[in-house]
Structure formats: structure tokens, C-alpha cells
Design goal:
The chain is of the alpha/beta class and about 210 residues long. The protein has a single domain, classed as Cobalamin biosynthesis CobH/CbiC, precorrin-8X methylmutase (Rossmann fold, 3-Layer(aba) Sandwich), CATH 3.40.50. It has 9 helices and 6 strands; from the N terminus they run H-H-E-H-E-H-E-H-H-E-H-E-H-E-H. It has a 6-stranded mixed beta sheet, sandwiched between helices. Strand 5, helix 8 and strand 6 form a beta-alpha-beta unit. The termini are far apart. It binds ligand LCYHOYRF. Ligand LCYHOYRF binds next to helix 4, helix 6, helix 7 and helix 9. InterPro entries: Cbl_synth_CobH/CbiC (IPR003722), CobH/CbiC_sf (IPR036588). Keywords: Cobalamin biosynthesis, Isomerase. GO terms for molecular function: precorrin-8X methylmutase activity. One of its GO terms (biological process) is cobalamin biosynthetic process. Pathway: Cofactor biosynthesis; adenosylcobalamin biosynthesis.
Length: about 210
């Protein structure tokens, strides 16, 4: 007997988002934030994630405006940059991931840091007004915060700071929210990851759903 299952992609999304809106407590999010949180929950398959999502005031509005104005999107990992749905982007925005640049391994050895963190040194020409998406590497978020301690370092328009894991993830996100250098959103604690981060970008790039 063949399995019967939903085969219409739009219907699957519709049903998922309706389930999330029925089950999650989204009351504290504004109209620009709510669709972002819905997509983050959707990517993680985890109602309850909303309790750990923290925006600085106006972050979602600022990120939407930056993307509409053509801001580049700077990603820590290819898993993030590859997940961004290009047709959603409002201004054919550049999506940049420098992790696999051939200069990075030698630079990382010289800097004594991970490739993920070191790759951010190649962001400097693109950083002003950019939307940053860090979904994997805690060291990348820590290094970005260190770069931005220099007042001469160009400022991004917004940071999605959702690295994941057990070493440095919670600490790097706490550091971001303790002194945000620009509008930011995080998922507190160990939770995070490339899929959740991509989902946030894809929501911010879309008209409200
Ligand atoms: C310590 C690292 C962590 N990686 C995690 C989780 C995942 N990483 C995957 C993959 C495929 C990649 N991770 C690298 C970024 C690699 N991961 C690290 C580093 C060693 C250090 C980063 C850091 O601590 O901040 C890092 C290498 C580096 O020198 O920077 C990756 C580049 C490794 C590689 O393939 O060379 C690669 C990224 C590929 C890309 O997309 O461009 C996983 C899929 C794991 C797997 O393969 O099993 C997974 C994905 C998680 C996600 O949602 O993004 C952690 C948990 C973040 C961990 C850091 C924290 C910890 O607690 O250990």
C-alpha cells in the first residue's frame, strides 16, 4: 500500500506556518520580527525556540531596509550562503562567503585563529552597511566583535548572530547583546545553526508572510 502524504510544497509551508502560529508564543514580536521568528522555528522544527530569540529594538526593520537598499549579505559558512533563496532578495543583493578564499588557510596560521574567524578579515571592504549572517562559527562572531571595537572599522547595518554549539556559542551571543555594535538578533544559548540563520535572512528578504 503506497504511503499517502502531502505533495504540494505551498500547502506544506502553509500548514507548517499555521501550526507554528497556533503553537508558539509570538505575542512579544512586532510585525517585522514575527515572520522572522516563524521561519527560524520552521527551520529548527522547534516550537519554543521563540523564548530564546532576542532582537535589539528595530533590528528587523533596519535589516529589511538595508536589504531593500541593496546591502550585501556576509556569511560565515557556505551552508549559510548557499541556503539564501536568491529570487527572494529585494535588490539582487551580493551574497559573500570568504571562508574558502585561498588566502584564508595561511592567514589563519599567521593569526592563530580558526579559518571561520580569519575569513572575516576579507569582509572589510564590504562591511559598511552590510547584513551579517553568522550561523555556524562562534569564533567568527567573537572576531567580528573584536574588529568592531576599532571605531575605524566599517559598521554593518545589522547582525544575525546565531552560531551553534558547546564552545563559545552562548558566550559570543551574550557578548553581542551586552554591547551591540549595531542592530542584532540572536538565539540565546547553545541553539542556533546555519539553517536557522538562513531562515532569518530569507524572512527578512521577503515581503511579510
Ligand atoms: C568547531 C567548529 C564547529 N562546527 C560546528 C558545527 C558544524 N560545522 C559543520 C561544518 C561542515 C563546518 N564547520 C566549520 C565551520 C568548522 N567547524 C568548527 C571549526 C573547526 C571552528 C569554528 C569555530 O569554532 O568557530 C570550523 C573550521 C574553521 O577552521 O573555522 C567548517 C569550515 C569545517 C570544514 O568543513 O572545513 C565547515 C563549514 C562548511 C561551510 O558551510 O562552509 C557541521 C555540518 C558539522 C559536521 O560536518 O558534522 C555543523 C553545522 C552546524 C550548522 O548549523 O552550521 C559547531 C558546533 C558550530 C562547532 C563550534 C562550537 C562547538 O561547540 O564545537
Amino acid at each position: 500500500m503506497p504511503h499517502d502524504y502531502e505533495k504540494d510544497g505551498a500547502a506544506i509551508y502553509h500548514q507548517s506556518f499555521a501550526t507554528i502560529r497556533a503553537e508558539a508564543d509570538l505575542a512579544r514580536f512586532d510585525a517585522d520580527e514575527e515572520p522572522v521568528v516563524v521561519r527560524m522555528i520552521h527551520a529548527a522544527g522547534l516550537v519554543g525556540l521563540e523564548r530564546d530569540v532576542a532582537f535589539t529594538p528595530g533590528m528587523a526593520t533596519a535589516a529589511r531596509a538595508a536589504l531593500a537598499a541593496g546591502a550585501p549579505i556576509l556569511c560565515d559558512a557556505r551552508m549559510v550562503s548557499e541556503g539564501i533563496t536568491r529570487p527572494r532578495l529585494p535588490a539582487d543583493n551580493a551574497v559573500i562567503c570568504t571562508l574558502n578564499d585561498p588566502r584564508v588557510p595561511d592567514m589563519a596560521r599567521d593569526m592563530g585563529n580558526t579559518r571561520s574567524a580569519t575569513a572575516l578579515e576579507l569582509w572589510r571592504p564590504f562591511l559598511e552597511g552590510a547584513v551579517v549572517a553568522i550561523g555556524n562559527a562562534p569564533t567568527a562572531l567573537f572576531h567580528l566583535l573584536n574588529m568592531l571595537e576599532d571605531p575605524a572599522c566599517p559598521r554593518p547595518a545589522a547582525i544575525i548572530g546565531c552560531p551553534v554549539g558547546f564552545v563559545g556559542a552562548a558566550e559570543s551571543k551574550d557578548a553581542l547583546m551586552a554591547a551591540p555594535p549595531c542592530p542584532a538578533v540572536i538565539v540565546r544559548g547553545r541553539l542556533g545553526g546555519s539553517a536557522i540563520t538562513v531562515a532569518a535572512i530569507n524572512a527578512l528578504a521577503s515581503r511579510r508572510e
